[in-house]
Specification:
Layout lengths: L10 E4 L19 E4 L17 E6 L5 E5 L4 E2 L6 H14 L7 E3 L2 H7 L15 E3 H9 L4 H12 L2 H14 L20 E2 H14 L11 E4 L2 E4 L11 E9 L3 E10 L2 E10 L2 H17 L1 E7 L4 E8 L5 E5 L4 E6 L7 E6 L2 E3 L7 E9 L2 E10 L8 H14 L1
Parallel strand pairs: 15-19
Antiparallel strand pairs: 1-2, 3-4, 3-13, 5-8, 6-7, 9-10, 11-12, 12-13, 14-17, 15-16, 16-21, 18-20, 20-21
Helix pairs in contact: 1-3, 1-4, 2-4, 3-4, 4-5
């Protein structure tokens, strides 16, 4: 059995198998397989790492593995981070051909009044009854966080902002973002308008992965409309090497938040947090979390897909044992310091009755480490095991009875 080695130290394999069979009818015994890595690291562990943000998450882009989280599964008010979903629906329609970047929409009184210059909210400064191209409106949404641009797009696509918000919620459900409910296109406070930071992280990954032709807009430093130049509000742009998106948010109810992504080498991380108390704290927390995303935490590969992780005894089978394999990579995210306490335990019944079909789940590997919630991964039969003949089963049963 192989436990993958990493550059951070030599991994020594400790195998402990304890199988105690009292009688055939007593089940539920456990075989234990423990792995430990021994090396010294001076760094923060995930159990001691903390951030001032009341809600936060760090996610690995490639695997979707959560590296750190703090109250990130609770649905919260996302403020203007909502606009990532608003833009997603526009991207989707342009991609499908239902909409063109050159399509022009008219600025209604509703959009101008609730999102324009006199609204007191973030705005693109669209003039009443003027027209704007979809491509320009997208920049107004993403770079300037313009509420007027969001409403114009929503009305142009769905007829009303309410109908567009329903489309946003429906789209979220199709993507598996179960915590999301949208009541508007802007993130304006509404008691039912909520999404978890975990789902915002997943939405950010989808935006980067599925819309490479649009994602670079999130990294643009500024956009000028109506003679007014506004800078990108993302505090990591120009401050953190590799940062290239996504979106800030702020209301009195939600505090200051951010959905951010950065890439260094082959690694990309997603950071989302909400509830900080000022722009300055948002900037500082953004730098803290994104630095930790690369320097403190990482993804560890324990087994490849299809790796042999052990064997299971088979009762009344033509083979006495069956190999156990993974169907997907076994990977966990944790702090570099916690790596020395990483352990994996293989659990299965002492003996599994034949017949067994290839691909049957026969047990699971549970991975534990300091500061990390235990994570379980299923293991499967690598091959078929047929029953013994009736005569052979009778002999085996008699032999077991004689041996006690």
């Amino acid at each position: 059995m192989e436990f993958k080695k990493h550059a951070f130290g030599c991994v020594f394999l400790i195998l402990v198998i304890r199988i105690s069979v009292l009688r055939f009818f007593i089940h539920g015994l456990t075989a234990l397989l423990a792995f430990s890595a021994f090396h010294s690291v001076v760094a923060q562990t995930s159990s001691t790492f903390d951030t001032p943000a009341p809600h936060a998450i760090i996610m690995d882009y490639e695997t979707g593995i959560v590296l750190y989280e703090k109250d990130a599964r609770q649905a919260v008010a996302p403020a203007s981070m909502t606009k990532i979903m608003t833009a997603e629906l526009v991207f989707d329609r342009i991609r499908s051909g239902a909409l063109s970047k050159d399509t022009e929409f008219t600025v209604s009184e509703e959009a101008w009044r609730r999102g324009g210059a006199k609204s007191g909210s973030s705005t693109m400064f669209l003039d009443l009854n003027s027209t704007a191209r979809v491509e320009d409106l997208l920049r107004g949404v993403i770079i300037q966080s313009g509420n007027d641009a969001c409403i114009v797009l929503a009305e142009g696509i769905a007829g009303s902002e309410t109908a567009f918000a329903d489309m946003m919620t429906e789209h979220a459900r199709k993507l598996g973002l179960e915590s999301a409910t949208f009541r508007n296109s802007t993130g304006w406070p509404h008691p039912e308008h909520k999404i978890s930071l975990y789902d915002l992280s997943r939405l950010a990954i989808r935006t980067i992965r599925d819309y490479p032709e649009f994602y670079p807009i999130y990294a643009e430093e500024s956009f000028t409309w109506n003679g007014i130049k506004q800078g990108n509000r993302n505090p990591l742009l120009g401050r953190f090497t590799g940062a290239d998106g996504l979106k800030t948010g702020h209301t009195e109810a939600s505090g200051y938040g951010l959905v951010a992504s950065a890439k260094r080498g082959n690694d990309r991380r997603i950071v989302v947090f909400n509830g900080t108390t000022s722009k300055a704290e948002r900037r500082d927390v953004a730098l803290q979390l994104m630095t930790a995303a690369f320097d403190t935490f990482r993804v560890y590969d324990l087994y490849d897909s299809g790796a042999n992780v052990g064997t299971a005894k088979v009762y009344m089978g033509q083979s006495a044992e069956v190999d156990l394999v993974t169907k997907a990579p076994v990977q966990v995210g944790l702090s570099r310091a916690s790596r020395s306490g990483l352990k994996a335990e293989l659990s299965l019944k002492a003996e599994i009755p034949a017949p067994i079909s290839k691909g049957d789940q026969l047990g699971e590997i549970t991975v534990t480490a300091p500061g990390m919630k235990p994570q379980s991964f299923p293991v499967f039969a690598a091959s078929d095991v047929k029953k013994k003949s009736a005569f052979a089963r009778a002999i085996s049963a008699l032999t077991r009875k004689i041996r006690g």
